């Protein structure tokens, strides 16, 4: 078991900021939930606190970036990508300011706090906005690499992080490249194209299916944009079914992005999008919610078998 | 340039912005005429920025938060040599960079604006960066009075005061009108000065069409060490053309052929008077 991706984000950012005083973190009363208390203590001059004001957070971050600062704007994903959406669209994306937007405690990380605190729309809204990369790391390695890669990006990026400790999915030294999916497991019966904290559950489902002699490919689609279309098309050619998995609404996220790639390619394959349906969200912890909507070893294995044996 | 030369320049700016709005058959007539004198003083007397130095990190920054008056800014930037004035013949045309609100595709424009309540937060970020870098450049932004209903402005005002950004000056184009009617009828913003003072800004009120007074107040910023400066510039929406002045219906109305001729005639008459 590794750390929470948020912890890795904070440590990686502190290391970057120690080497370059132009690296700034901007927070909206979110340093605690962002695991940034050590950063605040060690590099107080490189932290900008704006209070509970997400619109201001993003606007100020854009201004700082315009003056040459390497800016990480950190706020719970639910507020960052809804309350400050117009600032993201105009001040960052349309104005092409290379702000690194860090959506923390994303998806349903806040579980029982309810839908005010869930971000199940962020991938959809950001996919519809021009000029922003979208990264959803699955484990500690992907998180550290994404945070480092973001520092060098000259255009906007959104990185979506959860708060639960993550299992290591990759060997140390595994190559991480923005826009290039990583196959965590190879197989030819079903391909799970998953993102973020759901990748681990897809891997567990693959192991379940293995007990029944079915082989599964598990792909960590850590970059939602630019999407690795080749990885999707290869999976469609090699496997009999594809299940996409995301901690997000089934509308407008990874699943629909994959569906569009497949439809336009002309390749036909059994296909199912797993995520949150259009309904009032069930209450409970993140794991309760995952299980309820079939984002679990059993749930995903069942979905795969339904596709393979209709 | 003397005050009188700048006054004459303002009339020419007004004539030109009307010309290009008429040609495009689109544009924000009232608000552009309203802020001409402010932009005139900023670009001809206050801001240390030139086309040659526009990428210099030490340049002064101007952010046009009330983006719905970009036609005035275009005319002033063209006059300062940021691009050929003839480019404005493409205003709002197919494929033109000169769209109806400011974008960085146009040389001389710092930030894309037009959605209201964005320019001040951006300016706070720039001013904060200057403080961190111990740089001496100024940051100025122009807000509309109707724009102040956007709550984000007040978030930014709190942050600017919290970080003691005395390198930041915001100007409010207080023409009392917005697209629907009088600001005080739409959603009252007075007592404005008291509100701004309560938010930690140092506030001055000026006649926004008085070149001398605008120069004095902008040169006096920061008014207090450790505080951001706010200038309430009392203006007339549609300033300079009798039938456009103080009429909210001219927010983005384009003059008819007859109205256009009359407007240019009024401004020509004004020039004749000024030259006497």
Describe the overall structure.
The complex is a heterodimer of chains A (310) and B (276). By secondary structure, chain A is of the alpha/beta class. Helix content of chain A is 39%, strand content 19%. In chain A, helix 2 (37-42) links the parallel strand 1 (23-27) and strand 2 (47-49). Chain A has two domains: 5-160, Rossmann fold; 182-308, Rossmann fold, CATH 3.40.50.920. Chain A has helices spanning 5-19, 37-42, 54-66, 77-80, 85-94, 122-127, 140-152, 199-211, 229-238, 254-265, 286-292, 297-308, and strands at residues 23-27, 47-49, 70-76, 100-104, 133-135, 157-160, 182-185, 190-194, 216-220, 223-225, 241-249, 270-276. Chain A starts with a helix and ends with a helix. Chain A is built from twelve helices and twelve strands. In chain A, the strands form two sheets. In chain A, strands 2-1-3-4-6-5-10 form a seven-stranded mixed sheet, sandwiched between helices. The longest helix of chain A has 15 residues, at 5-19. Chain B has 276 residues and is an alpha/beta fold. Chain B is built from nine helices and five strands. In chain B, strands 1-2-3-5-4 form a five-stranded parallel sheet, with helices on both faces. Chain B starts with a helix and ends with a helix. Chain A binds chain B through residues 24, 45, 48, 50-51, 53, 55-56, 58-69, 86-87, 90-91, 94-96, and chain B through 57, 103-104, 110-115, 117-118, 120-130, 132-133, 151-152, 155-156, 158-159.
CATH superfamily of chain B: Thiamin diphosphate (ThDP)-binding fold, Pyr/PP domains
The order of strands across the largest sheet of chain A is: 2-1-3-4-6-5-10
Specify the helix fraction band of chain A: 25-40%
Provide the spatial order of strands within the biggest beta sheet of chain B. 1-2-3-5-4
Helix/strand structural class of chain B: alpha/beta
Number of domains of chain A: 2
Q: How large, in whole angstroms, is the Cα Rg of chain B? A: 18 Å
CATH topology name of chain B: Rossmann fold
CATH architecture of the largest domain in chain A: 3-Layer(aba) Sandwich
Low-confidence stretches of chain B: none
Main sheet properties of chain A: 7 strands, mixed
Poorly predicted runs of 5 or more residues of chain A = none
CATH architecture identity of chain B: 3-Layer(aba) Sandwich
SS field, number of helical segments of chain B? 9
């Amino acid at each position: 078991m590794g750390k929470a991706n948020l912890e890795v984000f904070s440590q990686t950012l502190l290391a970057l900021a120690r080497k370059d005083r132009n690296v700034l973190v901007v927070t909206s009363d979110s340093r605690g939930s962002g695991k940034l208390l050590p950063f605040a203590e060690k590099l107080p001059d490189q932290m900008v606190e704006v209070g509970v004001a997400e619109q201001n957070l993003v606007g100020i971050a854009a201004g700082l970036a315009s003056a040459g600062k390497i800016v990480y704007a950190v706020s719970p994903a639910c507020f960052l990508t809804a309350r400050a959406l117009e600032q993201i669209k105009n001040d960052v994306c349309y104005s092409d300011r290379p702000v690194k937007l860090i959506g923390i405690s994303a998806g349903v990380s806040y579980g029982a706090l309810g839908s005010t605190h869930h971000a199940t729309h962020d991938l959809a809204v950001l996919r519809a906005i021009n000029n922003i990369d979208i990264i959803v790391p699955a484990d500690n390695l992907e998180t550290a690499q994404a945070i480092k890669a973001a520092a060098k990006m000259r255009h906007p990026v959104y990185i979506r992080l959860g708060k639960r400790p993550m299992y290591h999915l990759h060997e140390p030294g595994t190559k991480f490249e923005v826009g290039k999916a990583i196959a965590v497991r190879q197989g030819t019966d079903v391909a799970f194209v998953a993102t973020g904290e759901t990748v681990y559950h897809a891997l567990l489902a693959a192991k379940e299916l293995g007990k029944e002699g079915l082989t599964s490919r598990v792909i960590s689609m850590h970059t939602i944009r630019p999407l690795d279309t080749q990885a999707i098309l290869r999976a469609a050619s090699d496997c009999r079914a594809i299940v996409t998995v995301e901690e997000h609404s089934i509308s407008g996220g990874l699943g629909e992005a994959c569906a569009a790639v497949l439809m336009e390619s002309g390749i036909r394959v059994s296909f199912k999008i797993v995520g949150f349906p259009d309904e009032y969200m069930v209450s409970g912890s993140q794991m309760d919610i995952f299980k309820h909507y079939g984002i679990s070893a059993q749930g995903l294995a069942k979905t795969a078998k339904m596709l393979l044996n209709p | 340039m003397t005050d009188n030369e700048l006054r004459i320049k303002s009339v020419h700016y007004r004539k030109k912005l009307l010309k290009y709005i008429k040609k495009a058959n689109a544009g924000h007539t009232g608000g552009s005429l309203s802020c001409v004198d402010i932009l005139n003083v900023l670009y001809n007397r206050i801001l240390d920025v030139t086309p040659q130095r526009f990428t210099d990190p030490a340049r002064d920054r101007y952010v046009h938060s009330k983006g719905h008056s970009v036609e005035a800014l275009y005319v002033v930037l063209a006059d300062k040599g940021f691009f050929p004035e003839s480019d404005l013949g493409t205003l709002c045309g197919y494929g033109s960079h000169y769209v109806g609100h400011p974008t960085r595709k146009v040389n001389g424009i710092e930030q894309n604006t037009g959605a209201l309540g964005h320019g001040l937060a951006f300016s706070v970020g720039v001013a904060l960066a200057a403080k961190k870098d111990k740089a001496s450049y100024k940051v100025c932004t122009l807000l509309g009075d109707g724009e102040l209903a956007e709550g984000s402005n007040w978030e930014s005002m709190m942050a600017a005061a919290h970080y003691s950004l005395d390198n930041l000056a915001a100007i409010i184009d207080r023409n009392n009108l917005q697209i629907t009617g009088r600001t005080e009828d739409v959603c009252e913003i007075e007592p404005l000065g008291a509100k701004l003072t309560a938010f930690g800004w140092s506030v001055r009120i000026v006649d926004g069409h008085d070149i001398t007074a605008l120069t004095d107040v902008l040169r006096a910023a920061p008014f207090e060490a450790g505080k951001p400066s706010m200038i309430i510039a009392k203006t007339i929406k549609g300033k300079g053309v009798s039938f456009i002045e103080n009429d909210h219906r001219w927010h983005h109305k384009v003059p008819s052929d007859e109205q256009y001729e009359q407007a240019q005639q009024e401004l020509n008459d004004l020039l004749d008077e000024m030259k006497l």
